[in-house]
Amino acid sequence: xxxxxxxxxxxxxxxxxxxxxxxxxxxxxxxxxxxxxxxxxxxxxxxxxxxxxxxxxxxxxxxxxxxxxxxxxxxxxxxxxxxxxxxxxxxxxxxxxxxxxxxxxxxxxxxxxxxxxxxxxxxxxxxxxxxxxxxxxxxxxxxxxxxxxxxxxxxxxxxxxxxxxxxxxxxxxxxxxxxxxxxxxxxxxxxxxxxxxxxxxxxxxxxxxxxxxxxxxxxxxxxxxxxxxxxxxxxxxxxx
Length: 240
Hints:
Layout: H1 2-13, H2 17-34, H3 41-44, H4 50-68, H5 73-78, H6 80-85, H7 91-110, H8 115-123, H9 131-156, H10 162-184, H11 194-198, H12 202-210, H13 216-239
Helix pairs in contact: 1-7, 2-4, 2-7, 4-9, 4-10, 7-9, 7-13, 9-10, 9-12, 9-13
């Protein structure tokens, strides 16, 4: 499993792809948070990272599919998946090894944003910030990235075309992140099933953790979604 993980990381950082992904995430966030009018924290007027945690999921929604789209589709396209099957590895070990490599890349993407905490702290009036809320938001952001990664990896297992894998992944992430929230706001569900429909979406649980409270239900939800998509990926590999 770890050999698969190291192989994926080496492949990812042996080209400019990995560095471009990290740079783009930091650049786009930096522009919106500190440069562009009406979205930067200076106009917001409060020493808070709320703007970052509202923006980051939308950037990850496109960035993660771009990272995961070749993970399995290229294995099918180039025929190296047949070589993988000759190794003493189970399908679960292959999938989890690739999944861990994606999570490691995303950690490298998120960790540099810790600099924003010191920036916000220095801008605050009394030098203090909501540490509990920020900690919860970062945990929620990583769990969100973990779910998007599982979805992207799963979509990559359906096709040998990386572009199709990217589009499928973006669509699936968008539906699971925002779709249930949008459906719950339809007039037909207002005052009856709207709350329960909204609970099925990722956005609901992400916002819950971002308040700084780690609820077991939110953790179980994220863990269940990740396991479900990894299981589908393993089933797809068995079919291959």
